[in-house]
Amino acid sequence: MDEVEHDVTEARQSKTEAGSFRTEPDGTRERTKVPLALSEAFLADLLDRVCQRMSDYRLEVDPVTKEKTFKRFAPRKGDKIYQEFKKFSFYSEAYRPLKFACESIIEEYEDEIRSLIAREARYLADKLCAEKPGLCKTSPGRTEF
């Protein structure tokens, strides 16, 4: 959900034209500017491609608790180091379960995720977990799917 939240936060700062492609009798078209994050095309594209970025995460084990978590290690496109980083290639089988889990969550809860975005909710993971008991396990300061 961090990836969805990141893209939605950036998209909330942009606007796009929306409206009908129908031409009125006077030759004009009814078009309005809406936040990009509320655009159907943006949401469809985002939810289709978000799970592909799971290879940007690596599995880490806490040395004390032995708890396993996935953490992002790759910079995002806008980060200063991104241009240098993309010259390297990383491959690991460890992210496959994360990608599968992401795809499963997106497929099963797509309507709920879209609804949260439309309501301009922040902290999407926390809100989705609150609305769908049993989807996540929580511990102090953390929400996990």
UniProtKB/TrEMBL annotation:
Residue numbers spanned by region Disordered: 1-31
Name assigned to this protein: Canopy FGF signaling regulator 1
Species, as recorded: Phyllostomus discolor (pale spear-nosed bat)
DUF3456 domain segment(s): 1-136
Compositionally biased region (Basic and acidic residues): 1-15
Assigned GO CC terms: endoplasmic reticulum
Superkingdom classification of source: Eukaryota
Family matches, as InterPro entries: CNPY, DUF3456
Family: Belongs to the canopy family.
A Pfam family per the record: DUF3456
